[in-house]
Amino acid sequence: MNTLRDSGIGALRSAVSGRQKMTPSEALVETLVAQGVTDVFGIVGSAYMDALDLFPLAGIRFISVAHEQGAGHMADGYARASGRHGVCIAQNGPGVTNFVTAVAAAYWAHSPVVVITPETGSATLGIGGFQETEQLPIFSRITKYQAHVNNRSRMAELASRAFDRAQLELGPTQLNIPRDFFYGDIECEIPTPISIERGAGGAQSLDAAASLLAQAQFPVILAGGGVVAADAQAETMQLADLLGAAVCTSYLHNDAFPAKHPLWVGPLGYQGSKAAMKLIARADVVLALGTRLGPFGTLPQHGIDYWPNNARIIQVDADARMLGLVKPISVGICGDAKAAAQALRARLSGMALAGAANRAARLSVIKAEKAAWESELEGWTQERDAWSLEVSKESSHMHPRQMLRELERAMPDAAMISTDIGNICSVSNSYLRFDTPRSMFAAMSFGNCGYAFPTIVGAKVAAPDRPAIAYVGDGAWGMSFGELQTCVREGVPVTAIVFNNGQWGAEKKNHVDFYDKRFVGVNLDRQPSWAAVAKAMGAEGQRIEHLSDVGPALSAAAKAQGEGKTTVLEMMVTRELGDPFRRDALSAPVRHLEKYKSTAGR
Ligand SMILES: Cc1ncc(C[n+]2csc(CCOP(=O)(O)OP(=O)(O)O)c2C)c(N)n1
Ligand SMILES: [Mg+2]
User: Relative to the CA of 225, which of 257, 290, 386, 504 has its CA 20 to 30 Å away?
Assistant: First the structure.
């Protein structure tokens, strides 16, 4: 499960074997070594200094960040890019509480992040000493497993379990350590990591699914994050080829299926592909492979209520609790996406496929829908609602959609892209296509502003040879640009594309649509020049005003990563806004009190 990136430190990298005397700090660090950990993100703190002292000799790099939230996101990006554990550590109390948002985000991104949380000393716990708070309840709903070191002799056992469970359950786990438990003499053995092979699922459910797929006239595959996590792209392609099935990707998992494949039809969900929506709407059988069918990812979009309520739905998920949770299903398979795809193909290879008769017709429908969406997108150079037309009329700035298209065209091969949660980042969903898995790191369903930048920094540490690019709105940039210090100080070169529209645009859209443009707190006036800020922080910075400069600037910035340089490209864009996030969740304001009546209705 854990393959070491840097075999050059091999001699240092094997954990001590056999039962022997050591300190708990040594036991922890040796457990990290045994688990293949080479990088840990955090901010230094006295609580765990005794263990930190051992990192260099253990071959573990400590990446010192600007804010613990950044460390958590970096661990998440690291895990998503590599499939290996992402690890973060902080000072007890405030350092640890700074992790919370990042851990919640990693939870919903299904990232195997291990959060090491030193705690106030066991001898003073509960009497309100320095930097004390109960650290287990805080993370109890955003971790898959919490280990509390209740006895120093159990350090290696519990640390090891936290690592194993993060991979087993694909999500963050917490290792909580009273700070005095780093010290003392113990005798223990460092456990070998447990690697669990996930199976294809039950034979009966696979048979039932194969039989539904064999009868399908219009099968469609919906490839989700599980395809990425299980490295199941090749198997998904083989199954799609066999069935002649269109393949949609689930919301914000655009890297689950290669965009160059003829059966790729694009992402579902917010700002997704109309081709994908129209094709899945026609399906009589859907194979939802490696997806929990998250509610936000199947909402109507572009005015299309595309979910095929009458189709037979086969859902494959490694977590049994996800089966049938959000959408009714006909067959639920608790299995690994890769193994399940293989098992289904093996079954279907020997069966007569009803969909074979109309395969050619189906393929031509797929081709036509893709072409129609491509040409619509090509002509969709700006938003056309009244507000957007008004604010962009006099503006010399770029239309966001055109700018996003230029970025897409100039995107370097094998790029990793993280996206934040603003309006322009969301619109970018239509323009983000990938041929390689582990390439798209969106803020997923936790949807926190400030996710994208630190996450791409972590991804770059995991995959230093791949171009690493973050898409970030200017509001979210204000939250996260501090991590430029980490890029410069630690030599982690990335590119941040900052969309300067001078507003918290995604939320402003709600003011426009539902609150009659009564703007409160959505304008970001008097911002600094983000390009100048970048330069002041030791990175490169460039303000981009013209479409013709977008592509060359991205290419140069990606190339500069090879020279160790981080670049901020500040894109000057109009204040126009794409469709809102939550048309479903807002409604016209109702007011009963006289003094607020003027705000009623709209
Ligand atoms: C941490 C956090 N705070 C607030 C929000 C609510 N929110 C969602 S999108 C958004 C606006 C984002 O603005 P910006 O980053 O400038 O991108 P734009 O929408 O302008 O493209 C806000 C405030 C959030 N999702 N996360
Ligand atoms: Mg903005």
Answer: 504
Interval 475-505: pLDDT, tens: 999 999 999 999 999 999 999 999 999 999 9
Would you give the distance in Å from CA 178 to the centre of its chain? 31
Does residue 24's CB lie within 6 angstroms of at least one atom of ligand 1? Answer: no
Neighbours of 56 (CB within 10 A): 11
β-bridge mates for residue 503, sequence order:
523
Contact 172, 114 (CB under 8 A): yes
Structure tokens at 249: 């990707």
- Ligand 1 atom with the smallest distance to the CA of 421 is 9
Q: Which ligand is nearest to the CA of 424?
A: 1
pTM of the prediction? 0.97
**Protein residue closest via CA to atom 3 of ligand 1:** 449
What does the pLDDT look like over 99-125, one tens digit per residue? 999 999 999 999 999 999 999 999 999
- Using the 8-state DSSP alphabet, how is residue 223 labeled? E
Task: Please work out whether the CB of residue 473 comes within 6 Å of at least one atom of ligand 1.
Answer: yes
Assess whether the C-beta atom of 421 lies below 6 angstroms from ligand 1: yes
Which residues of the chain fall short of a pLDDT of 50? 1-11
User: Rounded to the nearest whole angstrom, what is the distance from the C-alpha of residue 141 to the centroid of ligand 2?
Assistant: 31
Eight-class DSSP state of 382: S
Which residues 6+ apart lie within 8 Å of 67 measured at CB? 43, 98, 482, 483
